[in-house]
Amino acid sequence: MDLTALGDAVLAGRRGEIAKAITLVESTRSDHREQAQQLLLRLLPHAGGAIRVGITGVPGVGKSTTIEALGMYLISLGHKVAVLAVDPSSTRTGGSILGDKTRMQNLSVEPNAFIRPSPTSGTLGGVAKATRETMVLIEAAGYDVILVETVGVGQSEVTVANMVDTFTFLTLARTGDQLQGIKKGVLELADIVTVNKADGKHATEAKAAARELAGALRLIYPHDALWKPPVLTMSALENVGVDKFWDEVLRHRKVLGDAGELERKRHQQQVDWTWSMVHDQLLRRLDSDPAVRAIRGDVEQQVRDGSLTAALAAKTILDTFDK
Ligand code: GDP
């Protein structure tokens, strides 16, 4: 493969080649991985320029509808918008449910939008790695806004929060006891909380829910916190509040940027990413280590029949791996 030509084509923003380059970074073949790293090294100096926004929320909350409305709004402002998805569950079903072009009908035919469904390369770690590397390609290709969609499954929210500048949480009007149903973890990750479907007969309910959520958030954040996540209401379907949502994203960037936090956050994300790759690769090596494979059946059997404790078995496996 001519990596120089591919790199040039990505820099020129040629869609076919961008897709090809993404397929390369998603590949698990070792020769592809090496080529992908060469390509990324070449493109890295041209990356980093996009506003990176994560969008999470349960299925049905309106993520696709929001991305469609927000994407079209951003394009009208002159932006080039990429939509990526992190959906590790799609690796089980064999097909991605997110970032699906049919769900973003206007955006998918926009020349200034690039939509890519979630990679299906196995673990969340694998999906995250491919997505981060895709972000480098997309930024090098000149896209200046990246929207990363994820459904709140397991660790995927933390993973996406760790690859974006602004992490946003979409929810529906929930008050009182229903508030308990919202995972506390996701509120702690969110930079902006938005109550969607604030239209029709739900408009009042949505405002009340937003007030209650704002109260819950006040308990999480100290008075002097640099950024206190605002709670907005929006109707993605009727395109009401989408512009305000974007204004808050920009305000968040400005507050963080002025305090030097945006740069620090991005640098810390690189360090965290480094370690998460070390952890993933260690696990892969452990699983494929011939010496460990040779003893694992025996060790597992001894744990089952009670002749070895779990702790001693773990030590035996790790000692074997260390050698
Ligand atoms: P996702 O699964 O989070 O991506 O949710 P979708 O964007 O696919 O939306 C799920 C359903 O909710 C669809 O039928 C949408 O038309 C509807 N929906 C999305 N946003 C709104 C909204 O702001 N108001 C109303 N009333 N319906 C909405």
From TrEMBL:
Keywords: Hydrolase
Top enzyme category: hydrolase
Gene Ontology MF terms: hydrolase activity
EC number, UniProt record: 3.6.5.-
CDD domains assigned to the protein according to its UniProt record, in alphabetical order: MMAA-like
Listed name of the protein: Methylmalonyl Co-A mutase-associated GTPase MeaB
Keyword Hydrolase: yes
SUPFAM superfamilies: P-loop containing nucleoside triphosphate hydrolases
Family named by the database record: Belongs to the SIMIBI class G3E GTPase family. ArgK/MeaB subfamily.
InterPro entries hit by this protein: GTPase_ArgK (IPR005129), P-loop_NTPase (IPR027417)
Record-linked Pfam families: MeaB
